Each structure stands twice: as structure tokens, then as C-alpha cells.
Amino acid sequence: MALQWMILTYVVAAEAALALLLTLPSPKVVKTRLVSLISLILQPSIFILPFSGFQLLDLYWKNEHRLMCTGEICTAAERDRYEKSIYKAQRNVILCASACLLYWCIYRLCKYYKEIQSLEEVEKRYKDQ
Which coarse location class describes where this protein primarily resides (predicted)? Predict the structure, then answer.
């Protein structure tokens, strides 16, 4: 069960590194190559959106059907286990949301950069005329 969360953690870390690379200032040639490479990577990595969505649905279902430990019947160990599972679920929700948000940010950054490039080419053509 923890394998899916490790995969999601690595994907979020990779997305954060890509977002950092896109936002760092760099020469125009390097930035152009980087954006084209990341754009090629973005298309197959869209799998992260449905994967995160299904993980969120799984978390919601587990939260709705979780046994409550709120009475005098619970021992301290059971209460600790219950609280630990709640914290893990909250962490995993943040992980899923950040995966989707980072993917969207990277996509928009690449799209904006490509639009800027095309506008610069149009401006250059008009200046040459």
C-alpha cells in the first residue's frame, strides 16, 4: 500500500525540480531547449492527474468507513494508531493536491513561454518588414 505513496512522492519531487528549473533565470537557448524537453515529458506524465484523483477517492472512502476511536473503550495504543492514520491521510491528501497543482503550474509555464516565443517571432517579422 505504501508503494503508491512513494511513487507519488517521487513524482511530486520531480515536478518541483522541473518547476524550479523553469523559473530559474537562464540563457535563452538553454531555456528554449529546456522548455521543449519538459513539454515532451509533460504529455506522457499526465497520468499523474487520474492517479492522484483515484488516490483522493480512496482516501475519501477510507475516511468515511474508518472506525472511530472516541470513547472510553479505546486504549491509548488504539487512540495513537487512530491519530496516526488521520495524520497520514492528511499528508496524503496534501501530496495528491500538490501533484496536481505542480503539474498544472509546469504546464502553464511551458505554454506561456511558448506563447512568448511565438509573439517575439511575430514582432521580429514585423520589424523586418
Answer: endoplasmic reticulum
CA 74 to chain centre: 37
DSSP string, 38-102: HHHHHTGGGGHHHHHHHHHHHHHHHHHTPPP--STT--HHHHHHHHHHHHHHHHHHHHHHHHHHH
User: What was the pLDDT predicted at 25?
Assistant: 93
Residue with cell 482516501: 59
Q: Once rounded to an integer, what is the mean pLDDT over residues 87-99?
A: 91
pTM, entire model: 0.84
The tens digit of pLDDT for each residue in 31-52 reads 999 999 999 999 888 889 999 9
Name the residue among 112, 122, 118 with its Cα closest to residue 39.
Answer: 112
- How many Å separate Cα 56 from the centre of its chain? 13
